[in-house]
Design a protein that fits this description.
By secondary structure, this protein is of the alpha/beta class. The chain contains 8 helices and 7 strands; from the N terminus they run βαβαβαβαβαβαβαα. The chain has a single domain, classed as Rossmann fold (3-Layer(aba) Sandwich). Helix 4 links the parallel strand 4 and strand 5.
Length: 248
């Protein structure tokens, strides 16, 4: 399917990559719905983009997460594209005594459990549409992990694996399944990340992703050229060197 004249839901569309994709996809002629955990940042995006619709959604809130799909489908029965983008990235230290698990549990709930729950709730509707798409957002760290963010890297590896299985299961349906795997991008996913010299500028990343999504034949994996360093490291026999480059 082509990503124009679609009704697109983007979780975590109030900042970073999610916001950039939301604004870029709206500029291509799509109707865009975003979610955000924080009312103030969500409202800031909506004020800048009055044609967008937004919902406050904390995916860590089980009640809100369970209620959201029915509410958004009632308001937007033409929804045909879902981008599961919301995520968090926090450092962990397994050398401490005791090892604190709060970050691990929060990361798994946000990055893995919530996308699975939303997909399960929304897929029956998506399968009823003439054309539909489900898009996950993993990471280059799914392929070469960052040791200081072990559970984040693991959740993104799990999202990559889950997306592959989901694509196979849905191959006979009207739902196309794609995966965006960003490299290090200049956002505030982690404090100060937007200032890191090695980070890919957000505009460059977004432009390249939207260019891929505008093709007549969108690939299963929507990969900017820079993420090839991680995505192809193992296949090209560079995994050890890539791991050292990322982790020192």
């Amino acid at each position: 399917m082509t990503f124009t004249n679609r009704t697109i839901l983007i979780t975590g569309g109030n900042s970073g990559i999610g916001q950039a994709l939301a604004e870029g996809l709206q500029a291509l002629g799509n109707r865009v719905i975003i979610t955000g955990r924080k009312q103030d940042s969500l409202q800031t995006v909506l004020d800048r983009n009055p044609e967008m619709t937004g919902y406050v959604l904390d995916v860590m809130d089980d009640i809100a997460l369970s209620a959201f799909p029915d509410g958004v489908l009632a308001a937007h029965p033409d929804l045909d594209t879902v981008i599961l983008n919301a995520g968090i990235m926090e450092a962990e230290d397994y050398t401490t005594d005791p090892v604190e698990l709060d970050t691990a549990e929060r990361t798994i709930a946000t990055n893995l459990v919530a996308p699975i729950r939303l997909a399960a709730a929304l897929l029956p509707h998506l399968q009823s549409r003439p054309e539909a798409a489900l898009i996950t957002v993993s990471s280059g760290l799914a392929f070469v992990p960052k040791a200081s963010n072990p559970v984040y890297s693991a959740t993104k590896a799990a999202i990559h694996s889950w997306t592959q299985a989901l694509r196979h299961q849905l191959r006979g349906t009207k739902v196309a399944v794609h995966e965006i795997a960003p490299p290090l991008v200049a956002t505030e996913l982690t404090p100060g990340q937007s200032k890191v010299a090695a980070a890919m500028p957000l505009r460059d990343f977004t432009d390249e992703v939207l260019d891929i999504m505008s093709r007549d034949d969108v690939p299963d994996e929507i990969l900017v050229s820079r993420v090839g360093f991680q995505r192809n490291a193992e296949a090209e026999g560079r995994y050890g060197a890539a791991f050292v480059a990322i982790n020192g």
